[in-house]
Write a structure and sequence with these properties.
about 290 residues, alpha+beta, TATA-Binding Protein, 2 domains
Length: about 290
Amino acid sequence: MKKIITGCALVAFSMLAHALQPYVGGDKQPGGDLKATMATVEQKLAAAGFAVIGRHQPAGLPQHGAIIVTEPGLAAALTQIGGSAVVGLPIRVGVKADGSISYQNLEYWQRAYLRQDYAKAEAAVKSATARLQQVLGAGKPFGGEVKPEDLPGYRYMAGMERFGDKSELKAHASFDEAVKTIRDNLAKGVAKTAKVYEVVMPEKKLAVFGVATNDPEDGEGWWAKKIGADHVAALPWEIFVVDNKAHALFARYRTALAWPELGMFQFMGIASHPDSTAAMMAKVAGGAYQASGN
């Protein structure tokens, strides 16, 4: 009986050891001024070969910021895969005013985003991860555990969305029209949004835009504060374009993936967030969103 109990414990430990978490803590920087800390981290990333494409200080979260970068090897691998893989091209690094640093666990996010194509980019994911660790440190993972095999089909619970469900926002006449519409609407601040970054590849008909949601009642400063702003490396939201269609991952999926430890009561506390965010993204894409009531 003792051997059976020991064996079960080892199996449980093995499963736990192989679980992935969405973020990794980095080496703490001197704190006190968020902008200065972000500038220091940006310089380190740029010196290591990362391309800084955006910086984000979410409205309503004055002690938190995010730096968005790309890494050449990972970008090349995802571009080669094409299609919705473009959503995983930006890498987010979280910064807090006290000097705390975090960054996305690339294996976690790319297993979720690439799904059956993950193996095609695995070497690039590992290489980019090693570079992040070298620049920012390899601290303790955090954010909630999900088994690697569950990430390709991840959803928070039965009945909720998976990757790609409810993602299409607007079909345009062409790729160029889709990109122009999104650029123009972000420049106008449609639905109280703003552009954080953009990566546009006309030859591949692929694009991804970082979208700040600044509405004080429905934006990220409201809902992210309620469920845990330490996950700031989840922000900002994104719109991506494949051929002539604009997409945004639906918030019940995207939020749960970024906050997998979220309790049901916490999720219920931001129940309006999925539909209100979808409505914002649809307006930016030049479309309209009809809430399903689900």
